[in-house]
Structure formats: structure tokens, C-alpha cells
Amino acid sequence: MAASLAYIGLGANLGDARAALASAVAALARLPDSELLRCSSVWRSAPIDSSGPDYLNAVAELRTALAPIDLLRRLQAIELAHGRERPYRNAPRTLDLDLLLHGGHVMASPELTLPHPRAHERAFVLAPLAELAPDLLLPGRGRVADLLAAAADQRVERLAA
After folding, report:
1. pLDDT digits (tens, 9 = 90+) for 29-45
2. Which fold has domain 4-158?
3. Among residues 75, 92, 93, which one has the least CA distance to residue 84?
4. What is the DSSP letter of 160?
5. Parallel, antiparallel, or unpaired: how do β-strands 107-108 and 113-114 relate?
6. Which of 57, 71, 91, 159 has the fewest Cβ atoms surrounding its Cβ within 10 A?
7. Is the dihedral of CA 137, 141, 146, 149 positive or negative?
8. How far apart (Å, rounded) are the C-alpha atoms in residues 59 and 68?
9. Active site (catalytic) residues
10. All structural domains of the chain with their residue ranges
């Protein structure tokens, strides 16, 4: 498989969330057949459809030769290594890694939907993604910067490094 650009959403709101994000970025940099190109700033957002403390979020950009499902499984392994539990939908979490985009792949399977089905409506995804690639197109949804403008009513705050 030829290398594709993939964007990974990172989030955490339990424990030392900033340390969890940093550790996850280091784990992404060690993925086989992949190169971590860059990572956004850390952003804070309120939980959506959930409770608990505010989330810290970021987006990482990878160049990877891993197939989408293989990359997803490796992201899930990183989550598990960070103590991720899934007691119920949208539960607070130690680490959440979402495969947002993988090249131009558009797919819907029981295990993976690309692009991520809610990325286009979540400011906590769009703000860090726009920091990296404001003109990136989410297939079937539009340009990241335009989608972020449409989510302006959601509180998201860029944190100092």
C-alpha cells in the first residue's frame, strides 16, 4: 500500500491528560511503516453528550503505509496501554484516539467509518485540525476552516505550550 496522510484525533479527560496526550504522540511516532509529521497544539473543550472534567484534545498528522483498519487496531492498542476503558458510550477516558481521515478513503464498516462520522461537527476536532490543515477537505462535508466556522458556538480554547 502506498503511503497516505492520516489524521488522528487525540483526547483525554481523566488522570494527567496532558501527559497522556504526550505519551500517545510518542507512541504514534513509533508506529511501523509510519512517520509522525506534526501535531497540533493542545486544546481544551467541554465534554459533549457526556460528563466529567474538560477534555484536552489535539490532532496528529501521520504519513503511513498501514491500511486504515490496521492503523485503527494499532490506535486501539495504544488506548489500551493507557488504561482506556469503555464502560458506556462517551464515558470519560484516559485516552481516546480517533482515526479522522486516512488519505482519500471513504468507507463505512461495523469497525470503521471514514471520514470519522462526527468530525465535521465537533470544534474540538476541527480547531486542532484547522491549525494543521485549514484547507483540507473532509470528503462529503467540506473544507475544515469552513466547518470550524459553523461550529463557532462550541467552546474550545487553545492552551499555551
Report:
1. 999 999 999 999 999 99
2. Alpha-Beta Plaits (3.30.70)
3. 93
4. P
5. antiparallel
6. 159
7. negative
8. 17
9. 84, 93, 96, 98
10. 4-158
